[in-house]
Amino acid sequence: DSWMTWDVTALADKWVNGSLPNQGLQVRVGAGISSLSLVSSDSSNPSQRLKLAVTFQPTCGWAPPDATVTLSPQTDTDIDFNIPTTNFGSQPDLYLSQGYPAHPLLQFDLAGINAGSNVKSATLRLYFGALNVNTVSASKTTKNLTLNVHAVTKSWKELEATWKKRLVSSNWTTQGGDYRSTSVTSMTLSTNSTPGTWLEFDVRPLVQEWVDGVTANNGLILETPTSSTEELIFSSREAASNPPELVVTYK
Questions:
Q1: pTM, whole model, 2 decimals?
Q2: d(CA 180, CA 215)
Q3: What pLDDT score does 240 carry?
Q4: What is the mean pLDDT of residues 39-48?
């Protein structure tokens, strides 16, 4: 559980000046070592993925390009008014509704984005996979639905959070989750919308706050103020496909 580092300055310099083609690197074990397990670029934890850190003198007028990362949730669950003491953190679905109140909770690890970075864009993407109306499966929405994203103000745990509790040992101050009353962003899902699509929310201002350390990253919560029995079902991080994403572009 530690970092291994190698100085490859001379090799990288040859790649840049063209004296050696860049065909990558190979890591081999030395004498007395049978094997090592190294974290790859496909790790679910972005902060542990391998990296090449290069320090160089840029040419006049050069500006570094924007970086874009697509993050999977560190944790997610939904909390349900009708089953107020049950945790759903291991389930493949996230439910959002007002008539049968349910709120999705999500949290993303931003450790891989350096403090002070300028967040150019941050988009929360949720896959709208299924729909219930009056708890019965339906093919399309029957009215316009407002969907709001709020910043959560208290810490919580994926396998402990319920409608009443954020942790096994601590209640939410307000049942249904503690979050800022003013939404980070909102969107309208129009009448006759059908499942099988991605919904996208612009959460750039909040992600910038987290990166700057202005507010603690306690994640996001979704709610809908629309009086309706429509129940939107999103894929969670445990789903077989289309888990939530946070796509961040920064410099």
A1: 0.78
A2: 12
A3: 94
A4: 86
